[in-house]
Design brief:
There is one protein chain. The protein is an alpha/beta fold and 226 residues long. The protein is built from ten helices and eight strands. It has one domain: Alpha-Beta Barrel (TIM Barrel), CATH 3.20.20.70. The chain starts with 6 loop residues before the first strand and ends with a helix. The structure holds SN-glycerol-3-phosphate. The site of SN-glycerol-3-phosphate has 14 residues, from strand 8 and helix 9.
């Protein structure tokens, strides 16, 4: 992944449209769009489908979440070692729908670096973006929670938070790449994200619930390349 190229991360969440066999089918669609356009498309399938999706595609597969736990006598958690063993290349951390404490994010970012896994730390506002970028993850992804799953893109509803997030994140850690998400659905939204200084978008429903995910992904890919 080239540091300056546009990135699209598709979070499959726990939608029925992107679970089980459908997770593999959607990941293959993402792979074919990545191959056709040259854009980096990363998928984050439901946790039970992680290893199966890794085995099915060549594009990067990320975990939706990781817990800051030692592997062993814990139940219903996901350790960094589990993620590594699945063959995934990275993990989302601190998603609005799966928050972590800052001490846990810090510990996980450090351990992920040690293990060669990429990290995408989700943030909800500017102070959190600043704090999380200072932990030196690969990406921070600004997602105002009230816009998640809606029809208005963060790039239209709050372009200022996207632009400011890029500024505060790069000030805290110049090497960080910045994504934005929430309500992103079109190539126009993705192009605006790039125009605001980000490296791309993190999205879910716009792709997962689309009647034609391939058409949406091609539009998004064209947007990040504009
Ligand atoms: O992780 C992506 C996300 O929270 C945004 O969701 O459905 O608004 O694209 P959505």
């Amino acid at each position: 992944m080239n540091a300056s190229e546009g990135v699209i991360i598709v979070n499959f969440k726990t939608y029925v449209e992107s679970s089980g066999a459908k997770a593999i089918a959607l990941a293959r669609t993402c792979e074919s769009v990545a191959d056709e356009t040259g854009v980096t498309v990363i998928v984050a399938p439901p946790m039970p489908d992680l290893a199966a999706v890794v085995a099915a595609v060549t594009i990067p597969v990320f975990s939706q979440h990781t817990d800051d736990i030692k592997p062993g006598s814990t139940t219903g958690h996901v350790s960094l070692e589990n993620v590594l063993a699945s063959g995934a290349k990275g993990t989302l951390l601190n998603h609005s729908e799966r928050r972590l404490r800052i001490s846990e994010i810090s510990s996980l970012v450090q351990k992920a670096k040690r293990d060669g896994l990429s990290t995408v730390v989700c943030t909800n506002d500017l102070p959190v973006t600043r704090a999380c970028a200072a932990l030196e993850p690969d990406f921070v992804a600004i997602e105002p929670p009230e816009l998640i799953g809606g029809d208005v893109s963060v790039t239209t509803a709050s372009p200022e938070i996207v632009g400011e997030s890029v500024r505060v994140a790069k000030k805290a850690f110049p090497g960080v790449r910045v994504l934005c998400g929430a309500g992103v659905k079109t190539g126009e939204d993705a192009a605006k994200a790039i125009e605001l200084g980000t490296n791309g978008v993190l999205l879910a429903s716009g792709v997962v619930k689309a009647s034609d995910p391939e058409r949406v992904l091609l539009d998004l890919a064209a947007g990040v390349q504009r």
